[in-house]
Design brief:
This protein is α/β, with parallel strands linked by helices. The protein is built from 13 helices and 22 strands. The radius of gyration is 21 Å and the shape is globular. It binds flavin-adenine dinucleotide (FAD).
Length: 412
């Protein structure tokens, strides 16, 4: 086979791959991105968190994103039938931006990778990575382009940002049980045609079902009158909802009275898609000559929109450390990359578990939670899961438990 070489090879051109490519080009390295799809391509996951803005700014991508004309976002509205609670990200414990965007990912991801290309990244669209040879100094990838002969790419370092493709997890046998119950997401885009006067387009709407345990929906409006509407349901209950993804989508939609009212004039824009058992994890995020960033490593759940935030943070961090290593400095990937990254992900995990066991609903829908505690929760939901000055970051399970007891005592 033919071969080629680069400094850094990146698998996948989603947010994790794009930010890593941009950071490394800015530091003067030769960067090659291998992307299986042609861009723009549809992907789900449209609601960002304010924490993202710090990583985008650090990578010199803030103007790129601000120029996109996206829907502004300043918080989350939680609903359960008539009951509604707003969390405003501008009122929060941690420092940092309190606003961000809701984006159609096809356009957003394309915009980010285009900025990396302008910074010097060579991106090969329509080419798939299907082999990997780990090596501390000279890892290599086997690549098959859609329209050409397979070849080998020699690199000095590899970043796997392949999202649900999970390329290195599969090729290196790193997959592990995500330790979350299997749940399925069913989703589509629509013209929302919302006319309800109280509706706030600057917040994601998250609706908990009043009786079907663990069922919830997201409604993420965009700036062009479109919106993303999706549902999560325990996988074992899916067959009761219909034979096709579209049947299930319509059944889930009809099961929320507040959606029937809000979206009575909505028009579906695409056939609903479905991802069964979306959670995933790996035994290690680093190994000889490689690091795994974004969804190619751990993915928890869509409930708190943490996916792109984790992708941008890990992609940026992997790039900064790879740059140091290639410049001859010693890098301890376990303590400098994996441990801090996993700590933030574990904070989101504690919140995800607390959502599904009902703890967080009790807290969020409580009529008068102490303001200082609400601000700490707001900071985590805004993505500041690495700010250990926040007790809910330092020890999320303990503080969620204490807060639950407090809420229960007050309502008793
Ligand atoms: P991706 O964006 O998935 O990019 C990976 C790229 O790698 C793809 O373009 C793919 O084509 C390419 N690739 C895969 N295999 C190969 C291969 N073998 N060779 C070459 N290229 C390859 N996150 C949020 O922040 N907010 C949300 O509201 C949100 N909602 C979600 C709802 C659902 C139902 C799900 C499942 C996820 C949601 N997420 C959300 C998560 C979010 O979509 C992901 O976290 C995010 O896309 C991860 O970015 P990434 O760069 O890691 O991977």
């Amino acid at each position: 086979t033919a071969s080629d070489s680069t400094d850094i090879a990146i698998i996948g051109a989603g947010p994790a791959g794009a930010i890593a490519a941009k950071c490394l080009c800015d530091r003067g390295f030769r960067v090659r991105v291998i992307e299986a799809a042609q861009f723009p391509r549809f992907t789900i996951g449209e609601s960002l968190l304010p924490q993202c803005m710090e990583d985008l700014a650090a990578a010199g991508l803030l103007d790129t994103v601000n120029d996109g004309g996206y829907q502004r976002k300043n918080g989350a509205r939680f609903s359960q039938d008539e009951h509604v609670v707003d969390i405003d990200f501008r009122d929060k414990f941690s420092d940092g931006p309190g606003e961000t965007f809701q984006v159609e990912r096809a356009e957003f991801d394309h915009r980010l990778i285009q900025a990396a290309i302008e910074a010097g990244a060579e991106v090969r669209f329509g080419a798939r990575v299907n082999g990997f040879t780990p090596d501390a100094n000279a890892p290599s990838l086997d690549i098959t382009p859609d329209d050409g002969a397979p070849y080998r790419l020699d690199a000095r370092f590899v970043i796997d940002a392949s999202g649900p493709g999970r390329v290195l997890a599969r090729l290196c046998g790193l997959s592990r049980d995500p330790a979350l119950s299997p749940r399925t997401a069913v989703f589509a885009h629509l013209h929302d045609n919302i006319t309800a006067p109280g509706y706030d387009r600057e917040k994601i709407l998250l609706g908990a079902h009043h009786s079907a345990a663990e069922r919830w929906f997201w409604l993420i409006p965009f700036s062009n009158g479109r919106a993303s509407l999706g549902f999560v349901e325990p996988s074992d209950r899916l067959p009761q909802l219909g034979d096709s993804a579209e049947d299930r989508y319509r059944a889930l939609w009809a099961s929320f009275p507040e959606l029937k009212r809000l979206l009575e004039h909505a028009e579906l824009l695409r056939t609903p898609g479905e991802i069964q058992g979306y959670s995933a994890n790996v035994t290690a995020l680093t190994g000889p000559g490689y690091a795994i960033a974004g969804n190619a490593g751990e993915f928890l759940d869509p409930i708190f929109s943490s996916g792109v935030t984790i992708a941008l943070r890990s992609g940026r961090r992997a790039a900064e450390l790879a740059a140091r290593e290639l410049n001859g400095e010693a890098v301890d990937w376990r303590t400098e990359y994996e441990q801090p990254l996993r700590h933030g992900i574990d904070v989101f995990r504690a919140f995800v578990e607390a959502w599904y066991d009902g703890t967080l609903q009790t807290i969020i829908f409580h009529p008068n939670p102490p303001v200082y505690l609400k601000r700490m929760i707001s900071a985590v939901l805004a993505g500041y899961a690495w700010d250990t000055a926040n007790p809910f970051v330092a020890n999320p399970r303990k503080h969620l438990g204490t807060l639950l007891d407090l809420c229960r005592k007050e309502s008793a």
